[in-house]
Amino acid sequence: MNEFMRRLLMLPPQASTMARSIDYLHYFVIITTMIGAAGVAALALYFIVRYREGTGRGTNPPPDMRPHHARGGVSLWFELSVFGSLLALFVTWWIIGFSQFIRIWEPPPDSMTIYVVGKQWMWSFAYPHGGGSVGVLYVPAGHPVKLLMTSRDVIHSFYVPDFRLKADVVPGRTTQLWFEANQPGRHRIFCAEMCGPGHSEMRAEVVALPDADYERTIQGLAPAQISGPVQGLAIPFEADPPEPLSLAAMGQRVAAEAGCFRCHTVDGTPHIGPTWAGLYEATIPLQDGTQVVADDAYLTRSMMDPAAELHRGFLAVMPSYQGLLTAPQIGAIVQYIHVLGDVSRYPGEAPLPAPVRGTVPLVNPLEGTAPGEPRAAGPRAARPNPTGATP
Amino acid sequence: MTSYLTETTGIKSWLLTKDHKRIGLLFMIATALALMLGGVFALLIRFELVSPGPDFLDGLTYNRMFTHHGVVMVFLFMVPVIPTVFGNFFLPMMLGAPDVAFPRLNLASFYVYCAGAAIVLAALWFGGIDTGWTFYTPYSATSPTSVAIAAFGVFVVGVSSILTGLNFIVTVHTLRAKNLRWLEMPLFVWAIYATAIIQVIATPVLGMSLLLVALDHAWGLGIFDPSMGGDPVLFQHLFWFYSHPAVYIMILPAMGVVSEVVCTFSHNRPSSYRAIAFSSLGIAFIGFLTWGHHMFVAGMSVVDVGVFGILSMMVAIFSAIKVFTWTLTLKHGRIRFTTPMLYFFGFMFLFVFGGMTGVAVATSSLDVHWTDTYFVVAHFHFIMVGGTLTMYLAAIHYWFPKMFGRMYPERWGLIGAAGVILGFIFTFTPQFLLGNAGMPRRYWTYPPDYQWLNVASTAGATILALGLLVTLGYLIWALFKGPKAERNPWGSRGYEWLAPTPPPVHNFEAPLEITRGPYDYHLPET
């Protein structure tokens, strides 16, 4: 029954300890709502058909003649009982709902704490032992986790549909939320408060792991820098990488961890930032009317001070990565962009070149598709100017 | 006797008119243009969302489109439409008055509206706005778009809203015909009166908060910016203090139309006049105490959430009183099933289902999942837009004979109404499910598993648009070629039908003698 209703209402899986009881209330409320709406509509339809003009069923004037404003159509007791039961129904919902609401906001005393920072347009997480991650929140399954959340810029909202949980992440405040993942699994995180052109791309993932895996994973996370303007960027190494990575593959990995793909695409798709496809050594127009060749030096400068030489047609929204990426990480990203220089900037116009150089298949961890392959949207009109000309 | 349409001629006689009926028609043209513009933005949103990735709009432009849709529809169409068009035209006639209390102020209200609309449209054209119609800070203070100008435009439109509300309150108090007692006023008048009270009390708060946002954006005052000691959540409290009652500014006049339509076409008195009249006032009052339900997860105290939750449910009790009263009014009537009645039926479904989902989202734990998802989008479109739009269209059809002296084609009317209602249901039912599935609102791209519901919603929007186009088409035809209307083609007992069709400049041939109530269907039509 639970599973049937959940699928009928298209609710996501019930992945937190609270999700199921919230869903039960949902079923109760929605079923009552449907019956109520259908009942009123059916009654109105019945009257409309039964008392239609020409049937002679309407009594006009009505039998008991009293001043027009003083007379009710039904007895007072009937009215009172209808509204009394309606009120009782609403109060029941309110009591159940509010008691659940209080539970959502009261973390159990033994919860572990993870710090969450939202910024345009990425989520970063810092763990009690000092490690940090961007875009992936690792939690131990079966343990209560308390999130202490704040924002670096505008209001965001941390939303995990599978947990039925959401809380706004407000600059200048710390909000809290807690949950306990039922079992190991992966769950979407959305930003649910409009926060700018990249709002719908401000997605991340909760990865609930068994205890041992969780410990192993977070031990590998590099330290987070909570106090800086942007979160510390860390590369989660597994305990023993299966095979050595090429520099370009490493660059792709660093870029994914640093949140680059929230704004930059690798297949020519127009997006918030310039696509990396075919960018390397291309001549690009700048905001001030001049042009520049996107060589290693320019790419590096753009990571350190993005607004200084801004690609024309894009907004100055990229944060500086000065001090947040190490020299090898920067070199790896530049090498990755170098490799992507062979990909067409205009998907759908020219046949895509042979697979990108490099030994490891380059899989974009955020999109789940290989670069060069059009994203889920399919081919689009080629427009190298995605954010629109903003005067 | 010449009608108000032909008494004087020439563009100037229209643009400088002080006749409440002509001002109503001026507003009708302006708001209809706003409806069409807002509809175009809506269709752009829907077609962009047909596929999960970016299509023909980029991220910033997409954000502009839903903001423009919201701003135009809310501030230029839904808030003003029924009071300024039908309130202006019929409120004085229903009171037996020759005009509103302040005819010059009434004309001023129109031009202030036009000025505000022009400023808003200029902001949309030069740079647009991408903050959502809610202007949430601090994003709105940092947005690269024309936030300050748009906020100022909305401020100016608000002034027009206050002027109209004030005019109506004074009119109801001072210009009732001799012997017309408060509890014999038509129910539409009660609804407009309750609306006017909200307009006068709540709109200044919106004006103030939007002005502060404009200052924040233009000069970086930082009133709502936490890095300068401001509080972004305070803006939300101020904004919703107006914008929640604004929902009742939109829906109460629609409820007034429902009362008129349902009594006229069932040839029956309302099953309880007092219940309808006083529940309008009850909604207007309680509506001021529920704004916090927009902010359950925004950083409010848990106690506040409980209080706002239960108060929000009280609105549903008042609304339920109205719904049951209207339904029981049908009982023992002589029901004539016309286009306005079809719209009434659509209203009942949309309003009851939308209203019950309103109680659902007031249930705090459920709202945590639903808030800021498509469920909320579907909910407020059902209840607020569905309610207002269906009754706006019902009002056009119901009063068309009186306003223009011609009848609309009934068969086409029913076809158009069916298209609008079914299109509406097909557009927003999938959005309830999208919200359940967890798709946040204002998303330009989305995970592919949400696609089929988005496609279904877009298909529904297309039907809705076609229904509206058909309606526009035959109404324009009827304006010039429709058969001539009699004085009271529906056999209504409403006072406005006692006037000649179309009415002369001062509405009645002689001062109105009130000898019976507006719903006395047991008495002969005089």
Task: Write the SSE topology.
The complex is a heterodimer of chains A (391) and B (526).
Chain A: H1 2-8, H2 19-50, H3 76-104, E1 112-119, E2 122-126, E3 132-134, E4 136-140, E5 144-151, E6 156-160, E7 165-169, E8 175-180, E9 185-191, E10 204-209, H4 211-219, H5 247-258, E11 283-285, E12 291-293, H6 296-304, H7 327-339
Parallel strand pairs in A: 1-5, 4-10
Antiparallel strand pairs in A: 1-2, 2-3, 5-8, 6-7, 6-9, 9-10, 11-12
Chain B: H1 11-15, H2 20-48, H3 59-78, H4 81-94, H5 103-125, H6 139-142, H7 147-174, H8 187-219, H9 232-266, H10 273-286, H11 302-330, H12 339-362, H13 364-370, H14 374-404, H15 410-437, H16 451-481
List keywords for this structure.
heterodimer; A: 391 residues; alpha+beta; Helix Hairpins; Immunoglobulin-like; Cytochrome Bc1 Complex, Chain D, domain 2; 3 domains; five-stranded mixed beta sheet; 7 helices; 28% helix; elongated; disordered C terminus; B: 526 residues; mainly alpha; 16 helices; globular
Please report the total strand number of chain B as a whole number: 0
Return Rg of chain B in Å. Answer: 22 Å
Please give the CATH architecture of chain B: Up-down Bundle
How are the strands of the largest sheet of chain A arranged?
3-2-1-5-8
How many structural units, i.e. domains of chain B?
1
Number of individual domains of chain A: 3
